[in-house]
Amino acid sequence: MNTDDLSQSQNTDKPVFVVLPPETPIDMPIQNLQANPNVHGRPKQPVTQASNIVLRRLFVFIVSIALTAYASYEMNLVFNSYGMTALGLIILVIFTILFFWIAFSFASSLGGFVEQLSKGGGLSLGINPKDPLPSLQKKTAVLMPTYNEDPHRVLAGLKAIYDSIQATGQGQHFDFFILSDTTNPDVWVEEEAAFLRFRQQTGDDNHIFYRRRFKNTDRKAGNLADWVRRFGGGYDHMLSLDADSLMEGDTVVRICAAMEANEGVGLIQTLPVIVNGTTLFARLQQFAGRVYGPTIAYGIAWWHGSESNYWGHNAVIRIKAFAEQAGMPHLPSARKPFGGMIMSHDFVEAALMRRGRWAIHMVPALQGSYEESPPSLTDIAVRDRRWCQGNLQHIMVIPTKKLSWISRIHMLTGIGAYVMSPLWLLSLLVGIMVSLQALFVKPEYFTGTDRVLFPNWPQVDPVLAKYVFILTMLVLLAPKFLAWIAMFFNPELRKGCGGSIKALSSIFLETLIGGLIAPIAMLIQTTAVMSILLGYDSGWNAQRRDVGFIPIKDVVRDYWRHTAFGILMGVCAWEVSPSLFFWMTPVLLGLLLAIPLVWITSSQRFGAFCMKIGLLIIPEETARPDILRRDRIEKRRVMDMEVQDAFSTLVKDPHLVALHMSCLPPERQKGEPINPHYLVGMVKLNEVDNQDQAMQVMTHDEKSALLSSRKAIEKFLNLPV
Fold first, then answer.
1. Reduced to 3 states, what is the DSSP secondary structure of residue 360?
2. Which run of H or E residues covers position 7?
């Protein structure tokens, strides 16, 4: 009997648990990146592709290149007007790369601005939020992967999604799976207790399931692939969630209906809106995402067409396409970060499905998809470090055979998001070196062999430099301005942000604080890139999602180096030239204020103050959607629940013991590997006098090993209380 699928206590008086449905296996082959994919006769051009997609892409690239060429020409006049120098060439190359980065974003946002006003962004798939809710015919699995997360919080969100889907009247088309990769034994048992409570609350044992892996191979990608290979054959689609994901039932049904209506579509990605932010940092993130996000998302959807990207969650995926094309290989390089398991698997999964000629779409016009932001810069830096390593790995994936050039652009963009920080820092350092050269290197006023009447004055043109700076700022800030204009055509958004004037004030505040944080983020990302290139792994840790006070001493410990670097750079700039110092003031100010800035932005008090005066607010706060109301109710029910010791949790509930036993793998057989933690734990169980002593003497690893054995659990339960 497969104990993962069907469990039954040997004692018929104990409850019987079916924790998983019968397996419906489907083949999911590992993809060979050096071989041609099997496209199964599908056409090269998806039927859902926009007819004018070539013109859209030409517009984005021509505008980006033209703006960059003009700005680079002007920058060349600033530094090299009287002849090219080595440092002048270096700073010109760096400037060209950095400017193309922001020009590309501007061109994409410009297309998104037009598309946003025309109310596109999903209509090509037949998704119109104003139409009556369509009826579903096929089955979808809602997947909630979790890894050492607070189970009460995670399942409260999943319960809100469950209730919202049931409210559509089409709940029979959905099964819900909690896919645990948890390694913390206390969290593991608490997950089972929360799962048991979830079923009891809904009275639904036929559509809610729980599976914990005992070998966490390939992290989240392996977690999902394991489910697909075991159960994917019984479903047409899967809805991939994250631990903080929320989606309206109406939204989920519409996307699933679009998948049914468009058989060549492999994935539909929604635009998750950041919500529930309480710290100032989280509120800045959610305001920016809510106001600027649609313009940016409409833009990339506009020119990506049917070759869009996947962000790993809040998306509906056709299981046939995923199983057929998205089996993740290990990269062959032996040196980290480029070898081994693909960490940022979502980009690659979308690219491989597109390589197999499945269409990948984003639908920014459809609302009802939500996520949360890390509460502080420190928390986002931890997550960013992992993403940085994953994105740098894509260097090894870009040469994949038959990969769409748009998919390659996606990966280059992901790499660029982290490479731009070291380049920005390098440009600042080279700028100081240029000024040093002007200060200490004796200039040659009369060059060449011919006698000339007028000297050649080597200089940096300050007036032209000012114009280049203004142009750069205009291109950098234009997407925000376009988003503000688009707000005038969206009364709901404008009203929800406090009106046009309050919204503009919030944009100024977000831009100011974001500008001060940018140099800090530059150093954080530069450090991450360098450490990864030196071979340091980012690890795999659970993300902190709940708000917590960060003591000032911890902020000082983590950010004193940023302040020290700012002081050092400021002293060097001042010694070289006061004008250079004032030119670098925006960067220096952010670094000098790193400690108070991080501490203030991680505070709930300052976040609450902004909300009180009507700044950085979003429509989801002024008129809370149904799914967010449901989520708030569910989280209030569990707000006082904490993760307890695993054994103390088990002994309180015989139903939980039976459930836990039913989920365990078979006992170790002779000849199989020996777990030394299990052996030591069993010795301790033999020597203790009662359960309390056992819980006190067991280490984390011993507890985890004993909880994986029926014999050990029975031995513990037979100890005196």
1. strand
2. strand 7-8
Please tell me the distance from the alpha carbon of residue 530 to that of residue 422, in angstroms, as a whole number. Answer: 9
Are 478 and 106 a contacting pair, CB within 8 Å? yes
Give long-range contacts, CB 8 A cutoff, 24+ apart: 7-12: 7/658, 7/659, 7/661, 7/662, 7/663, 8/662, 9/658, 9/661, 9/662
* DSSP of 613-671: TT-S--HHHHS--HHHHHHHHHHHHHTT-----HHHHHHT-HHHHHHHHHTPPPPPPTT
Cβ neighbours of residue 623 under 8 Å, at least 6 residues apart? 496
Residue type, 18: V
Q: What's the pLDDT tens digit per position in 430-445?
A: 888 877 766 655 555 4
d(CA 346, CA 220): 10
Q: How far apart are CA 195 and CA 205, in angstroms?
A: 10
**SS3 of 180-235:** ECCCCHHHHHHHHHHHHHHHHHHCCCCCEEEEECCCCCCHHHHHHHHHHHHHHHHC
> 653 with 193: CB under 8 angstroms?
yes
Are 278 and 547 in contact, with CB atoms under 8 Å apart? yes
Q: Which of 358, 328, 322, 325 is nearest to 220 (CA)?
A: 328
Nearest to 190 by CA among 660, 664, 695, 710: 660
SS3 460: coil
Pairing type for strands 315-318 and 369-371 reads unpaired
What distance in Å separates the CA atoms of residue 36 and residue 38, rounded to the nearest whole number? 7
DSSP label of 124: G
**Residue 307 in 3-state DSSP?**
strand
Contact 339, 331 (CB under 8 A): yes
Whether 238 and 177 have beta carbons less than 8 Å apart is answered as no
Q: Which residues contact 545 (CB under 8 A, 6 or more apart)?
A: 149, 150, 153, 243, 244, 372, 374, 375
Confirm if 215 and 679 have CB atoms less than 8 A apart.
Answer: no
Question: Which amino acid is present at 366?
Answer: L
Q: Using one digit for the tens of pLDDT, what is the confidence trace for 647-667?
A: 999 998 999 999 999 999 988
Q: How many CB atoms lie within 10 A of CB 200?
A: 11
Nearest one of 637, 645, 356, 294 to 480, comparing CA atoms: 294
CA–CA distance, 692 with 719 (Å, rounded to integer)? 9
Instruction: Report the alpha-carbon angle 345-350-356, nearest 5.
Output: 125
Specify the DSSP class assigned to residue 75.
Answer: H
pLDDT for position 544: 65
Residue spans of beta strands (DSSP E) within 231-282: 237-240, 246-247, 265-269, 273-274
Q: Which helix (H) or strand (E) holds 315?
A: strand 315-318
Contacts of 517 (CB under 8 A, 6+ apart): 377, 590, 597, 601
pLDDT tens figures, 298-357: 999 999 999 999 999 999 999 999 999 999 999 986 566 678 889 999 999 999 999 999
What is the rounded CA–CA span in Å between residue 428 and residue 533?
22
pLDDT digits (tens, 9 = 90+) for 680-712: 999 999 999 999 999 999 999 999 999 999 999
H or E stretch covering 174: strand 174-180
Helix 552-576, helix 405-440: angle, nearest 10: 50
Whether the per-residue pLDDT at 67 is higher than 50: the answer is yes
Please provide residue 549's backbone torsions phi and psi, each rounded to the nearest 5 degrees.
-70, 135
pTM for the full predicted model:
0.91
* Phi, psi (degrees; rounded to nearest 5) at 691: -65, -40
> In the predicted model, what is the mean pLDDT of residues 526-537?
87
